[in-house]
From TrEMBL:
PROSITE patterns: PROKAR_LIPOPROTEIN. Residues 39-65 are annotated as: Disordered. It comes from Candidatus Enterocloster faecavium. This is Lipoprotein.
């Protein structure tokens, strides 16, 4: 009897050890599966991060492209424009040279020094220096008079803003002078067509 009891106890002990081994193996397999899933998830996330970086770099590139000046005004010989007369000017000094910002109008639109406003009139705005001229505006304007402002910025660069204001347009183009290229480079900072311009004060 004791012999059978000892055999039964031995079998139970062996079975219990086998059960513990299966439990440990199950836990080990589950851990390995979890690690594999984490690695797969990180690999899937990597292309998304690369795509995100590529999109950010693309945005920076597009911003750089937008910052490139739209307009370039090169030097030309300073000769009086045909069929036009000087209506007003603003003399100034820059880089030890004498300049002036000039507004020209159609010769037949100036009577006794005054501008005879008509429905349409030709205008030209030029920056002039010695024998050099830079035409910043030239157009026929309906019900309006273009204007120009000149100033020096905080980096001692020459800037000129042209305001093209007429019955259905409000447009401002800002130019900066590049001495090395001997040219003005500009961008449209305000460009509105089809508006209803009312008027201004302070001029």
């Amino acid at each position: 009897m004791r012999k059978y009891a000892a055999i039964a106890l031995g079998l139970m002990f062996v079975l219990s050890l086998g059960g513990c081994g299966e439990g440990e193996r199950t836990i080990s397999v589950e851990q390995e599966t979890s690690v594999v899933q984490e690695i797969s998830a990180s690999r899937e996330a990597a292309p998304e991060q690369e795509t995100s970086l590529t999109a950010a770099e693309s945005d920076e590139t597009s911003q750089e492209v937008q910052e490139i000046p739209e307009l370039a005004v090169r030097r030309e010989e300073n000769v009086p424009p045909e069929n036009m007369t000087l209506y007003s000017s603003c003399p100034f000094s820059f880089d030890n040279e004498e300049w002036q910002l000039c507004l020209y109008v159609q010769a037949d639109m100036v009577i006794d020094g005054s501008l005879a406003m008509d429905d349409r009139c030709g205008f030209m705005i030029r920056a002039e220096r010695g024998d050099s001229a830079y035409t910043l505006f030239e157009d026929t304007v309906q019900l309006g008079v273009p204007a120009g402002d000149v100033w020096m910025d905080l980096e001692n660069r020459l800037r000129i803003a042209i305001r093209d204001v007429r019955s259905a347009r409000y447009q401002v183009t800002e130019y900066v002078y590049d001495g090395e290229a001997d040219a003005f480079y500009g961008q449209r900072v305000v460009d509105q067509d089809g508006v209803n311009y009312i008027g201004s004060v302070g001029e």
